[in-house]
Amino acid sequence: MTESVELMNKYGEPLRYDRNFTGPRQKDRSCTDVPCLLLFALFLAGWGYIAHYAITRGDLNLLLVPTDSFNRKCGMDSGVLNKKNLFFFDMNKCIDPIVPLTGCPTPQVCVETCPRQTFVWDTMKDQLSFEDLHSRLICLTEEHKAKIRTKSDIEQAIKDNQCARWYIKSAPFLKRCLFEFSQGVCDYIPSFLLQGGRSRRELQLLPGNASTETQLQAQVMAMTMAEAQALVVPQANSKQTPVEEEPIVQCKRRLNEAVIKEKMMQTDTRLAKLVGNMVAHFYNGTHDAQRLGEEIVEDLVNSWSIVLVACFCTLVASLIYIALMRWLSAPILWFSIFGVLIGLLVGIYYTVKQYIFWEKTPTVPLHGLNLQSQVKNVLQNQNTWLYLSIFVGVCFVVILLLVIVLRKRIRIAIALTKEGSKAVSSVISTVFFPIFSWILFMAAIAFAIGVGLYLGSIGDPSFRMVRQLTESGEVTTEDCICEGPAINYTVGGSCDPNVFQQSCSVRQTAFFQTQRISCTKTTCSFDSIVNPLKIKWAIFYNVFGFLWLSFFISAFSYMVLASTFARWYWTFKKRDVPYFTLTRAFCQTAFYHLGTVAFGSLILAIVRLIRLVLEYIHEKLKKYDNAVTRAILCCMRCFFWLLETFLKFLNRNAYIMCAIHGKNFCSSAADSFNLIMRNFLRVVTLDQVTDFLFFLSKLLLTAGAGVSTYYFLANNPAIIQLHYNAVPTTVVVIAAFFITSVFFGVYSTAVDTLFLCFLEDCERNDGSPEKPFFMSKQLMKILGKKNNLPPRQRRGK
User: Got a GO cellular component term for this one (predicted)?
Assistant: First the structure.
């Protein structure tokens, strides 16, 4: 057994440690926090059972039920109970990437079955009789269709967008009628989807928007009656394109590629309008904003390859920068500190100068309501510059005093930063390890969302009696009278769609006779799914499961990296660091410390869940506007935010101590907290200095990526011509900042781990042959310490 003795540290506090401690234990580790690991395993098993129950009992079709243009759920609401499928007047308008955000801009109606034949009014109007044409019409409502008496009425209804001009044989997909192409359909593709003068087999779309009304009329289908029938029942002797893949596969593939390409062009135009509207707020609403938006979008589309290359170069530069930090961290840090001080001096001079100028130059405030006018008013106010000069002056004095007082500890922080660079460079695989965590995290998100959707679909649907809105947004005033079992139905109250459809009607008087017709402007519409109490608890369980699992994945990744860097520090000769250090750390964490990871993540998950509950209560109590309640909730939200921040800090250090000593979570947290409290000033200094250095490093790499991209675009107009070089440069700057943040997140973990190892090293060892220091020679030089070792035991570089 390892001898354990009771000593006093330099602060006079008891310090327990193993006299023979030489670094992280490898062979004599044991599993930690096993009960919490079992609890986590049981929790995951319960979550799996809930997922199985949700998938077997739930029905996503209830959440994916289509809605027509009158806001009626197909197959669920009154009036469309027997019409479960949704038909689109012009499917071509729905093949657009922004449809999930804006909706499909074409009339949509519920139908019993999707059309099993093709209909093209412009081609068939002279080929078929009125009865055949009328039977094939698909209109907004049966009333619209019933009013049509002649072919002229059909023409007028189509022009008024009350009936579909054309449709192709369709099949239901998620209860939505989508085109179903037959074997010989490529020979009969409508001409408005083909480029004039070319073979139909080439499937080249027109460069313009072929779905507009004008082009649709100008380029009607050149189809005969036989061709239309061939779409439904392809002829046996129809010719096929002599290619290796099946004609139907090739047809669908080429058509989809062409249509999507065209729609992307249309999306560029819509996106340009969106950007133009945003720019107009800063352009005082001038008409030039729309042109500027179009140019910005065009630059983004044309420069995507340059942006990708710049991001890749940023990734490589980050790796090189981390490797160079072992030699350049000191000059960079000191240069950054003095640069900040000089910049603050310049800021003091400038703000004082502006204060004096605007004090002697009175101006009339601008009364415009746009952002530009408000900014000018602020900048022309002398008090603004007075407050800024005071703030900048205080910052200068505070930073200068901190640098003077903490200069020695800043040198320690620089040395530890160098050590962190050496550790990351020695185990370069740690830089890419976060990819593993991202994959697990994305899988957790997908699983939780899927289970939540299935759970949300379990229950009984509830319906409400509502009145539809007109195109202008006004509520309709239809006199819908309910009798019999529906006599108590009122607008806004609950109802049953079957009872409503049978018992509610509108009375009309014609030729001295009263007729009852179904209500069309008032419906019994689907409202929501009422989940049983156990399902609500299952949803709560699912939310907590996602929180626990996400914190577990983050903690596992952190402990693996901490174990890797701790092993690097406690290797006496750094050149003897074992191969596959990251793999060994991964296996060590997975075999011994999953319970500790589960314990720490459980604490954070509970606190985060409390915060979510408080946010939910806050939203619910907003309408009451009670000052006392708002104050209490504000204090509680602030307290739990601070508690979560502190627990995150405590957990990170507990994981590091567990990686070093192999103790359970509580012991590791207590040891790390006591160690930090004994070295509180060093901790604060290192934390702030390293954070500042990492921020400057990210700023330097991001600025370098932006400047390089702008310089390349400005000096190589032959390669790519843009309206504004600043557009792709801005995208590169944003992407570069995210890339560097990921890299320096690993770097920060290395420094935090090495810092705790450094504090342990200082308290446990004295430089004797029995207890030599494991820190670098530079750190020993700063602290005035050295190892008294025989020549054969001295550390190799």
Answer: plasma membrane
